[in-house]
């Protein structure tokens, strides 16, 4: 997601930017270093440089993974993403245990539990510093809502709670600002489009990849007050996306879901089963990994 480092590099809040991957990072870092900001950009490449890339970081964004292809769900990416996220979380625990860790890698519903379990094993887990970034769902909800109402998309804000795949994505239209109203049929169609928006892009690209540009925008926007998957205070699931008040180093406050309409209560109830299964999938991966003595 090349747009992510570009937006980070241009932020006046960033003094040092480390870019890590198994290929191409040196060229990307050289390119970014020509942008007229005070941020120092360094590229790191290969497993042997991962520790150096993370040393002393305060914020770690993890978009690593593979794109979806037509016919694939985000959950189909699990068996590629599981080891990637476990490896990176392990490296964070060793080199920047106090960093805010923001997981973008799909399936986010499972990769956040993976990262959390790895940090727990190192004794450095802080539930207020691990996030599953779901801002993309909010960006899409705002856009689609504005299309239907004729409102300025920049002025629309729809909280999106739950998870980050299919029916676990729950837009809270009743809490939208400015206030909007739709017929039952229009609301159902809108929910379906928001929940399957990623698939819409995958199909449109005809096998050439999945969403990248809107993802880069969404993750660069993440901050201050956003919805994200975190250790749950809702009680039903161990991890759940809710609106969060963020500070520089942690979640300052999780106000929860707020008042839901009857329609939204039904959507949340439908989301719980799939979300719980995804969370267990991530936790079981780490348990099995430990039992087999795998090292990362």
Give a summary of the structure in a few sentences.
Belongs to the LDH/MDH superfamily. MDH type 1 family. Helix content is 43%, strand content 16%. By secondary structure, it is of the alpha/beta class.
In one word, what is the shape?
globular
Kindly state the mean pLDDT as a whole number?
86
Q: What percent strand?
A: 15-25%
Number of strands: 10
**C-alpha end-to-end distance:** 24 Å
What's the CATH H-level superfamily name of the largest domain? NAD(P)-binding Rossmann-like Domain
How many domain units?
2
CATH class of the largest domain: Alpha Beta
Provide the gyration radius in Å.
19 Å
Low-confidence stretches: none
CATH topology of the largest domain: Rossmann fold
Helix content: 40-55%
Topology as a string of helices (H) and strands (E): HEHEHEHEHEHEEHHHEEEH
Strands ordered across the widest β-sheet: 3-4-5-8-9-10
Q: Largest sheet, described in full? A: 6 strands, mixed
Tally of helical runs: 10
Subunit structure: Homodimer.
Catalytic activity: (S)-malate + NAD(+) = oxaloacetate + NADH + H(+)
Organism: Paramormyrops kingsleyae
EC number: 1.1.1.37
């Amino acid at each position: 997601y090349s747009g992510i480092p570009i937006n980070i590099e241009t932020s006046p809040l960033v003094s040092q930017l480390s870019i890590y991957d198994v290929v191409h990072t040196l060229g990307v870092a050289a390119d970014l270093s020509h942008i007229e900001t005070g941020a120092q950009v360094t590229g790191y490449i290969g497993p042997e440089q991962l520790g150096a890339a993370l040393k002393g970081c305060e914020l770690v964004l993890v978009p690593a993974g593979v794109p979806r292809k037509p016919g694939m769900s985000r959950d189909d990416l699990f068996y590629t993403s599981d080891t990637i996220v476990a490896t990176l979380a392990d490296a964070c625990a060793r080199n920047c245990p106090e960093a805010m860790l923001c997981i973008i890698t799909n399936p986010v519903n499972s990769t956040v539990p993976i990262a959390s379990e790895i940090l727990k094993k190192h004794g450095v887990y802080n539930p207020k510093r691990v996030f599953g970034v779901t801002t993309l769902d909010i960006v899409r909800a705002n856009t689609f809502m504005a299309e239907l109402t004729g409102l300025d998309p920049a002025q629309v804000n729809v909280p999106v709670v739950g998870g980050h795949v299919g029916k676990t994505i729950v837009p809270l239209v009743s809490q939208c600002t400015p206030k909007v109203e739709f017929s039952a049929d229009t609301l159902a169609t809108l929910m379906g489009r928001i929940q399957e928006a990623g698939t819409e892009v995958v199909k449109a690209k005809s096998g050439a990849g999945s969403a990248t540009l809107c993802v880069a925008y969404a993750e660069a926007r993440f901050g201050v007050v956003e919805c994200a998957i975190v250790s749950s205070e809702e009680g039903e699931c161990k991890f759940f996306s809710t609106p969060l008040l963020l500070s520089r180093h942690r979640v300052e406050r999780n106000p929860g879901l707020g008042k839901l309409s009857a329609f939204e209560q039904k959507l949340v109830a439908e989301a719980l089963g799939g979300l719980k299964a995804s969370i267990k999938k991530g936790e079981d991966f780490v348990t099995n990994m430990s039992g087999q003595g795998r090292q990362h």
